[in-house]
Design a protein that fits this description.
about 425 residues; TIM Barrel; 10 strands; elongated; single chain; 2 domains; 19 helices; about 15% strand; alpha/beta
Length: about 425
Amino acid sequence: MSKVNVVSTSSHCLTQYIARQPIFNADKSLYAYELLYRESTDNVFPVGTSDGQATARLFFNALLLMGMDKLTGHQRAFINLSSDALLDDFPKLLQPHSAVIEIVERADEIPELATRVASLKKEGYVFALDDYDGDEKWQPLLALVDYIKLEVDEPIIKTNMMIKKLKRQFPTVTIIVERVESNQQFNQLKAAGCDLFQGFFFARPEMLSYGNVEPSKLAVFDLLHCTARKNLDFEEVQQRVARDIGLTARVVKLANARSGNLNLTIKSISQAVIYLGEDAIRQFVRVLALSELGSDKPTELTKLGLTRAKFMASMLIPGGKELAEQGYLVGLMSVLDAILDMELAVIAKEFSLGAELSSALLDFNGMLGGALQLARAVEEERWLLAKELLNTIRPASAMDVVFSAMFNAREYADDVFASISVRDEVN
């Protein structure tokens, strides 16, 4: 089992794990990767984790933060979804054709699933039926899926006969056989008409690890509360997201993922929330809740991010609400390099921050860059530099404005963390 360290572990973030197992063509060339949820370096599905929890954690941590292309090297991806996730339209958090969605063998409510799959297929989503065993209950789904996955059975002639039967009934379907463990099995399955192959004969699941910042329990609770109402208040959602750096990172990333090839440039949290729209936001929160995430001990780095964000917004508010919101986002993003162990240049590119926000984050350019540099000067108690920077940002203001803004920003961050601690104690 090889380990690819996508983002190295940091003392300020949790390490998350995911396995990917290649799927090969008949000529043994790579066709796709199946992404598998893991909780540790033990390359097995975690005991006591439901299909729903695995689905949500895979979506929330891996797909919404790291991104599908990063995990698969721009190859096709197969991902497992529980029945509940499918019925709750989780696929709509992804672009159609961005992944093959596997209906797991433990799925129930087959008639309802078939109706939902038929609806999603009209929108361009692609499906596979996992571990098909010939049971009649799957009949409503067989004509809808693009892939059918089988496991090697012993004697192997039983699997070969199943392949031929499926090919006669559904000539356009692609057959994948899992648990191929020898060259002899591979050759026999290939001769029977199998299209794609997966198993230890080719490669064991490869472990990937990556740094991760998780949202707080209070943030989860608050978002659930405000999205439970019939009419969604986008301003309220934006405020809830803005208080948590883990949520901010995922909402911005999700907006980028949903934009496809539109080259969306994110300039504020509110822009990302509005772009996603009501349905996507509600689905996002359901994924968040089901994943049962939430850090018990918020780090000082996330508090620093909140402080910077609030300070920059306060210093830039005379320039208008839009500029203040941009400052808030830059402030939060400015600590992600330390939390995720990524270069800021990579973060700016991954989150599609655009030229203006990126140059502020990387080179302290413009009003936004000046406000970020001012925040850092105050943190480091470099008062002469702070005064010079204030003269470029707000030339008519005295240093008292800086002291007051930083005091209020620290109080804001402390209040957020205090409320998290109280909520955790209650829970």
